[in-house]
Design goal:
Blueprint (H helix, E strand, L loop, with lengths): L11 H9 L3 H5 L3 H23 L3 H7 L9 H10 L8 H6 L6 H11 L12 E2 L9 H11 L11 H8 L8 H16 L10 E4 L2 H12 L5 E6 L5 H9 L2 E6 L10 H13 L4 E7 L11 H13 L3 E5 L15 H7 L7 E6 L12 E5 L2 H10 L7 H12 L1 H28 L3 E2 L8 E4 L9 H13 L3 E2 L1 E2 L10 E4 L8 H16 L4
């Protein structure tokens, strides 16, 4: 047996063990208690002294630095460095809508808004004749408000029941009492004794623009198209196309026919669209016409319905100027034609509103009137995106129910539009400018083709710029309305006061003298 090896107390292994584990002496009872207590304390104080000495310069550096320059984590530094070069993207749809205006119609509106004419504050500003708005009878509306509003149902007072009608959720597609009053009003304006509008077929929207868009959404899919007699309202391109993806196909009408629609023009446009592979889903008409101001007669309305039935497409009749007639020509609503004959009603839809006829565009009230139950069901749900406030409906219901006021308003408004139209047209004739004969609307459709050079859309835009910059008048060029003949302009005269006409004619004279061809 090999004798057991005994290590010396001074052996290196034991000394190393004592240094690594100083408390071993406590276990072995050989004086390690004192050493095991002193060494950890010494190491602790030495470490403290070392750290204090090497951090002594930090306060001096931080004290001289700007307090806002705080240390940041790497992720925060990366975020800040990238934020200046990477832009947050929006949808393709929003990018398309957000582009700068490229239509002279909207460019002119913006310019007139930035530098509006005012007889006292800005006499050198731009006169707004590009906006279809009736200011001739605003005084009548103001008088009614000052006299009647306090007694209307919108004046809540202490009646809790009235408050509940305007402060709580109500049907998005319109209050029942407002629908009833509105259909009575439409009967007076469009139907007279020949047709009665049914409140159950009415959907209230925040203006005629949402009404048109909702009908487009219900009747056509993206990539489909509507036929639209041209020249047509310059706002249709936005109202119809922006969010629905539905295209508009102009059905060109010409000056030799007083810009009146014909079946031949409809057939040509429809057939050409089919050759291009476009699916036509409907016809959109304006009656009275905007921008021309003429009316579609009864026979033409029958032809449109027959054309639509044969091709299984819809008809949208925009009749928002039905009550703004100033001539003696008969107005016939599409509703009157539908009710008088056994026709396919389900493909007929009417748009109306109060912005033009009642001079209250700021109230934003329009309606859809449809004979198609599926369209009505969808429109009632879509109305949540364009509902009219309950208070607005209550106020207007009170106004429309005031039969004496409405009759007086119709009489006075028609007389004022007629007087302004005759005065303005006579002044234009004195400058050598002729207008299309019209019976309705708030505008004149003026032939200025003799002043453009070259005879093209480019020449027309040159004249438009001179009107805007030299005459300081904003008018709508025909190209913005898809007119096939260059040189036609829409002038909305109902934004003027009587005393403004001479000033406008003087400004127009400057451009006429500059552009008039030399003999």
């Amino acid at each position: 047996m090999t004798p057991e090896r005994k290590e010396s107390p001074r052996s290196p292994s034991r000394t190393g063990m004592r240094l690594i584990v100083p408390l071993q002496g406590v276990v072995q009872g050989r004086g390690g208690l004192i050493l095991g207590s002193l060494i950890p304390c010494a190491l602790f104080y030495f470490l403290r002294f070392y750290l204090k000495r090497h951090r002594s310069d930090a306060p001096s550096r931080s004290s001289s630095a700007n307090l806002s320059e705080l240390s940041r984590s790497p992720s925060r530094a990366n975020l800040l460095s990238r934020g200046s070069s990477v832009r947050a993207n929006v949808s393709v749809r929003a990018g398309s809508v957000g582009k700068p205006n490229d239509s002279p119609y909207y460019i002119g509106l913006d310019r007139a808004r930035e530098d509006p004419y005012d007889e006292i504050d800005n006499p050198g500003g731009i006169v707004q004749l590009g906006l279809s708005e009736n200011r001739l009878s605003l005084d009548l509306i103001e008088d009614w408000f000052s006299k009647k509003l306090a007694n209307s149902s919108a004046g809540v007072g202490d009646e809790t029941s009235k408050l509940s009608r305007i402060a709580t959720y109500q049907p998005m597609d319109g209050l029942e009492n407002f629908k009833l009053v509105m259909t009575d009003f439409m009967t007076e304006v469009m139907g007279r004794s020949t047709v009665t509008f049914d409140p159950s077929r009415l959907v209230v929207t925040s203006g005629a623009t949402p009404a048109l868009e909702m009908l487009t959404f219900c009747l056509a899919d993206p990539g489909n198209a509507f036929l639209v007699p041209a020249p047509y309202c310059p706002g249709f391109d936005r109202d119809i196309k922006w969010r629905t993806g539905v295209e508009l196909i102009p059905v060109h009408c010409r000056s030799c026919d007083n810009f009146t629609l014909s079946v031949i023009a409809l057939e040509q446009a429809y057939n050409q669209a089919r050759k291009r592979g476009q699916k036509v889903r409907g016809i959109l008409i304006s009656n009275p016409s905007n921008p021309v101001g003429n009316l579609l007669n009864r026979d033409m309305l029958y032809d449109i319905l027959y054309f639509a039935r044969e091709r299984n497409i819809h008809v949208i009749s925009d009749e928002i100027f039905a009550g703004s007639r100033h001539g003696d020509e008969e107005f016939v609503s599409m509703a009157e034609v539908v009710e008088s004959e056994d026709v396919d009603k389900e493909r007929v839809h009417i748009v109306y509103g109060l912005s033009k006829d009642l001079s209250v565009p700021g109230f934003r009230v329009g309606v859809i009137y449809s004979y198609n139950e599926n369209v009505l069901a969808a429109s009632r749900k879509l109305a949540r995106f364009s509902s009219v406030s309950s208070q607005t409906q209550e106020i207007l219901a009170s106004m429309l129910s005031d039969k004496m006021f409405i009759l007086e308003y119709w009489r006075t408004n028609k007389q004022r539009i007629r007087t302004m139209y005759d005065t303005f047209v006579a002044g234009l004739k004195g400058l050598g400018l002729e207008c299309v004969r019209s019976s309705a609307g708030l505008y004149c459709w003026i032939d200025m083709s003799s002043l453009i050079s070259p005879y093209s859309d480019e020449g027309e835009l040159v004249l438009w710029e001179k009107l805007l910059n030299t005459a300081k008048i904003n008018a709508t060029p025909g190209s913005a309305c898809h007119c096939i003949e260059p040189g036609w302009f829409r002038f909305c005269f109902t934004t003027l006061k009587d005393r403004d006409i001479s000033m406008v004619l003087q400004r127009l004279r400057r451009v006429v003298e500059i552009c008039k061809p030399t003999a």
